[in-house]
């Protein structure tokens, strides 16, 4: 469960251990970095942090399926990070702060960690992945996977460098 009634936080903190699934409604249509079918495991503690303010301190972990930036093969990347999020009721001094999440609900009585976890996840997902550090990628001419072996394309050479390729026979 990633939604909490703030009245339950008045006397004691809430322990959070829940999964944010990849098919949850919090994910937007264009989110290409959705987690894999296991979702994101969110653990931590949500507590009151003053009048109208609440603090979540925790950790999340999951995996995302991406393409290798060199050879386009599928790569499963682990994503995990510690997270610290502040929630505040509307109408306070934090209204203009983009790093503070709003207390939601019809009466401003609910804290939904899903939106904050989605944002934190999208910021932490690596923009590029490689299948292995020595990935050779694809041939720019024919598109062959160079990890499987050399392709039959002739290497490109720039004629401007030919003078440097010739051995120097005359001493200066």
Tell me what the structure shows.
A hairpin with a 4-residue loop joins strand 3 (40-48) and strand 4 (53-67). This protein is mainly beta and 172 residues long. The chain is 9% helix and 32% strand. The chain has one domain (3-124). It has helices at 113-124, 162-165; strands at residues 3-5, 14-20, 40-48, 53-67, 74-88, 100-102, 110-112. The radius of gyration is 25 Å and the shape is elongated. Strands 2-3-4-5-6 form a five-stranded mixed beta sheet. Strands 1-7 form a two-stranded antiparallel ribbon.
The fraction of residues assigned to DSSP E strands is 25-35%
Radius of gyration: 25 Å
Average pLDDT, all residues: 85
Whole-number count of domains: 1
Give the class from helix and strand content and strand pairing.
mainly beta
Topology, please?
Layout: E1 3-5, E2 14-20, E3 40-48, E4 53-67, E5 74-88, E6 100-102, E7 110-112, H1 113-124, H2 162-165
Parallel strand pairs: 5-6
Antiparallel strand pairs: 1-7, 2-3, 3-4, 4-5
List keywords for this structure.
172 residues; mainly beta; two-stranded antiparallel ribbon; 7 strands
Short description:
This protein is mostly beta strands and 172 residues long. It has helices at 113-124, 162-165; strands spanning 3-5, 14-20, 40-48, 53-67, 74-88, 100-102, 110-112. It contains 2 helices and 7 strands, in the order βββββββαα.
């Amino acid at each position: 469960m990633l939604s909490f009634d703030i009245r339950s936080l008045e006397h004691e903190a809430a322990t959070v251990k829940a999964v944010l699934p990849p098919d949850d409604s919090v994910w937007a249509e264009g989110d290409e970095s959705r987690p894999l079918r296991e979702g994101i495991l969110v653990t931590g503690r949500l507590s009151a942090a003053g009048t109208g303010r609440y603090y979540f301190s925790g950790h999340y972990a999951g995996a995302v399926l991406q393409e290798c930036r060199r050879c386009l093969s599928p790569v499963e990347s682990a994503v995990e990070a510690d997270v610290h999020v502040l929630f505040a009721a509307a109408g306070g001094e934090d209204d203009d702060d983009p790093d503070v999440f709003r207390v939601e609900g019809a009466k401003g009585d609910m804290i939904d960690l899903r939106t904050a976890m989605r944002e934190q996840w999208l910021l932490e997902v690596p923009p590029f992945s490689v299948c292995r550090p020595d990935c050779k990628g694809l041939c720019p001419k024919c598109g062959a996977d160079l990890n499987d072996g050399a392709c039959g394309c002739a290497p490109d050479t720039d004629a401007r460098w030919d003078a440097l390729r010739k051995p120097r026979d005359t001493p200066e």
